[in-house]
Amino acid sequence: MLTNPPIGILEYFYIQMTEWIQNYARSLKERTEDLKRERRLAEDLLHQMLPKSVAKQLRRHKHVQAESYEQVTIFFSDIVGFTTIAASCTPLQVVEMLNNLYVCFDTRIESYDVYKVETIGDAYMVVSGLPERNGEKHADEIAKMSLDLVAAVRQVAIPHMPKERLQLRSGIHTGPCVAGVVGYKMPRYCLFGDTVNTASRMESTSLPQKIHISSATYTALMIDDAYEIELRGEIEVKGKGKMKTYWLLGNK
């Protein structure tokens, strides 16, 4: 009766080595996929913190030069009575409320040619015209976006205050500014210049559910004459003196 010959020692080691190589290859492939996944997550996070064009330069270890922009339009908003609302909430409820609000806003602004600069507490800052210049579209993009956000905020529920609705106070200004990356371990894309300050003043002197715009923004929007705009008149603005300002009411 014939029997299979015993496996030689070299053949045995060959089989063992083959299995080890195959297992190692599978493990290496899994680790490579994990590394790619982690890299994608890191890139997504970086793109949320910085404009894509800026993030790309940083990934290549390039120094990002500050850049001057002749004309951009900047939007600021905050929640009316936020301090009072927050005083009646637990810290967790405040976080939940702001998260609901900013998820709504972040989703909405994706439809426009704008860049969210930052959120600090209940303050929301958005710009159009940088880092990618868009000609004379910046004022129009911010105007459309601001009307959308003012309408959207009324739909954001306060979980622990179901009968209440949030109200937005917002302001817009158009002008030159400088933009650049500040910081090393936690880089931030920041805007500098009087245009930033004036846009902030437009917001702080605005009213609930109103969009307060400067004369410069009014002039930029009147190029296409596509909006209903009402003269507010001259108001005293901190650090600026008297300024002629307007209310952006809606589309024509």
Automatic annotation (TrEMBL):
<keyword id="KW-0675">Receptor</keyword>
<dbReference type="InterPro" id="IPR001054">
    <property type="entry name" value="A/G_cyclase"/>
</dbReference>
<feature type="domain" description="Guanylate cyclase">
    <location>
        <begin position="73"/>
        <end position="203"/>
    </location>
</feature>
<keyword id="KW-0342">GTP-binding</keyword>
<dbReference type="GO" id="GO:0005886">
    <property type="term" value="C:plasma membrane"/>
</dbReference>
<dbReference type="InterPro" id="IPR029787">
    <property type="entry name" value="Nucleotide_cyclase"/>
</dbReference>
<keyword id="KW-0141">cGMP biosynthesis</keyword>
<dbReference type="GO" id="GO:0001653">
    <property type="term" value="F:peptide receptor activity"/>
</dbReference>
<dbReference type="InterPro" id="IPR018297">
    <property type="entry name" value="A/G_cyclase_CS"/>
</dbReference>
<dbReference type="InterPro" id="IPR050401">
    <property type="entry name" value="Cyclic_nucleotide_synthase"/>
</dbReference>
<dbReference type="GO" id="GO:0007168">
    <property type="term" value="P:receptor guanylyl cyclase signaling pathway"/>
</dbReference>
<dbReference type="Pfam" id="PF07701">
    <property type="entry name" value="HNOBA"/>
</dbReference>
<keyword id="KW-0325">Glycoprotein</keyword>
<dbReference type="GO" id="GO:0004383">
    <property type="term" value="F:guanylate cyclase activity"/>
</dbReference>
<keyword id="KW-0812">Transmembrane</keyword>
<keyword id="KW-1133">Transmembrane helix</keyword>
<keyword id="KW-0472">Membrane</keyword>
<dbReference type="Pfam" id="PF00211">
    <property type="entry name" value="Guanylate_cyc"/>
</dbReference>
<keyword id="KW-0547">Nucleotide-binding</keyword>
<comment type="similarity">
    <text>Belongs to the adenylyl cyclase class-4/guanylyl cyclase family.</text>
</comment>
<dbReference type="InterPro" id="IPR011645">
    <property type="entry name" value="HNOB_dom_associated"/>
</dbReference>
<keyword id="KW-0732">Signal</keyword>
<keyword id="KW-0456">Lyase</keyword>
<dbReference type="GO" id="GO:0004016">
    <property type="term" value="F:adenylate cyclase activity"/>
</dbReference>
<protein>
    <recommendedName>
        <fullName>guanylate cyclase</fullName>
        <ecNumber>4.6.1.2</ecNumber>
    </recommendedName>
</protein>
<dbReference type="GO" id="GO:0035556">
    <property type="term" value="P:intracellular signal transduction"/>
</dbReference>
<dbReference type="GO" id="GO:0005525">
    <property type="term" value="F:GTP binding"/>
</dbReference>
